[in-house]
Design a protein that fits this description.
elongated, 2 domains, alpha/beta, formyl-coa transferase, domain 3, 14% strand, 17 helices, Rossmann fold, 6-stranded parallel beta sheet, 3-stranded antiparallel beta sheet
Length: 394
């Protein structure tokens, strides 16, 4: 049996962070109901698009059942509270004024169900003068300094190539919800409120950059494909592509230089230690770039692996999703689309020996399961569901 079999989740969130946490819960066996307004999650309209709709939506909403609920109407809000009484978890990404207007505050849901785990995801956090401002991943990459750390040393700040903060927030929400469910199951708490924000995640991802500044006064700068405090350790242009290779310590430096056929650099006083190489980066890097340019990615990977030096080809998306190692670990999976044809999705990023999760079904169509969810969760008859539809609640 999966870890969260029997757990009921109401996912009112939109775009990436909240929906991704809901998808992870679904993968682990929870019954996740994606609740959308009549116009649907805006992610459904984002490009690129395939026959099955937005591929962005596809990435974070598989395995859920879909219910349309108009929370702008009293009937819709009343129906939500009936669902809340049956739920274990509620996830939302409304701004505080919107949550108040729609009746989705923690106080309101706690009154209806004291055992509910309530997970609120915001842009800038639940307190402070910016708490009611909206936030998206790229905004938070700028605000938290991630963009200023990304790009070439003399170039402009750049966006990280993926939605790092959104998806990391989804992972954090999944972990926090799991912890809260454990606390409830072991009697340490009943329900509780979880507050996450994209800003919190962005700051947390800064990691050693914050401790380096706060404790040593060091302000990190952009280092391109490399690491500012480890030289050499970066991507190198080869005759037919790019390879990542480097020396993370002095032992690896000797192996690295030897593998390149540049043994004379090992004892060069400019490059002998980690500090020397960092301080003389501008002299060292051109020497190494010239050497890497003389051969292919495959050759350099072979040479560096033989020398037991950190190395990897720099893959494109099409290369990584077809790589035998990725496929051997089940990170690309297929689920049937609405026509029974395979829809390719990312596999589970974590595996359990005793309570395995599974790649669940396709992303739902807007409101696809409204009738069956209301029957399963609330025991409503077809006539009662139709009445709700007539008044515009669903």
């Amino acid at each position: 049996m999966s870890s969260f079999a029997g757990i009921k989740v109401l996912d009112l969130s939109r775009v990436l962070a909240g929906p991704y946490s809901g998808q992870l819960l679904a993968d682990m066996g929870a019954d996740v109901i994606k609740i959308e307004e009549p116009s649907g999650d805006e992610l459904r309209q984002w490009f690129p698009r395939a026959e099955n709709g937005s591929t962005n939506f596809m990435a974070v909403n598989r395995g859920k059942r879909a219910l349309v609920l108009d929370l702008k109407k009293e009937e819709g809000r009343a129906l939500l509270m009936r669902l809340v009484k049956e739920a274990d978890v509620l996830i939302h990404s409304f701004l505080t004024p919107v949550a108040e207007r729609l009746g989705v505050t923690y106080d309101a849901v706690k009154a209806a169900n004291p055992d509910l785990i309530y997970c609120s995801i915001s842009g800038y956090g639940a307190t402070g003068e910016m708490k009611d401002r909206p936030g998206y991943d790229l905004m938070m990459q700028a605000f938290t300094g991630v963009m200023m750390l990304t790009g070439e040393p003399n170039g402009p700040p750049m966006r990280a190539g993926l939605s790092t903060i959104d998806l990391s927030t989804g992972f954090l929400a999944f972990g926090a919800i799991s912890a809260a469910l454990f606390a409830r199951a072991t009697g340490k708490a009943r329900g509780q409120r979880i507050d996450l924000s994209l800003m919190h995640t962005g700051i947390a991802l800064l990691g050693y950059h914050v401790t380096n500044y706060m404790n040593a006064g060091h302000v990190a700068a952009r280092a391109g494909s490399g690491v500012g405090h480890i030289v050499p350790y970066q991507a190198w242009k080869c005759s037919d592509g790019w390879v990542l290779a480097g020396a993370t310590n002095d032992k690896f430096w000797a192996r690295f230089a030897t593998a390149l056929g540049l043994e004379h650099l090992i004892d060069d006083t400019r490059f002998q230690t980690t500090v020397d190489r960092r301080n003389n980066r501008e002299e060292l890097i051109p020497l190494l770039e010239a050497r890497f340019a003389t051969d292919t990615v495959e050759q350099w990977v072979t040479v560096m692996e033989s020398a037991q030096v950190p190395v990897s080809p720099v893959h494109t998306i099409d290369q990584v999703v077809t790589h035998p190692q990725v496929l051997a670990n089940g990170m690309i999976a297929a689920v049937p689309d609405r026509h029974g044809e395979p829809m390719h999705v990312i596999g589970l990023p974590v595996l359990f020996s005793e309570t395995p999760g599974r790649v669940t079904g396709r992303p739902p169509e807007l409101g696809e399961h409204s009738d069956v969810v209301l029957r399963d969760w609330l025991g409503l008859s077809p006539a009662e569901v139709e009445l709700l539809r007539d008044v515009g609640a669903i």
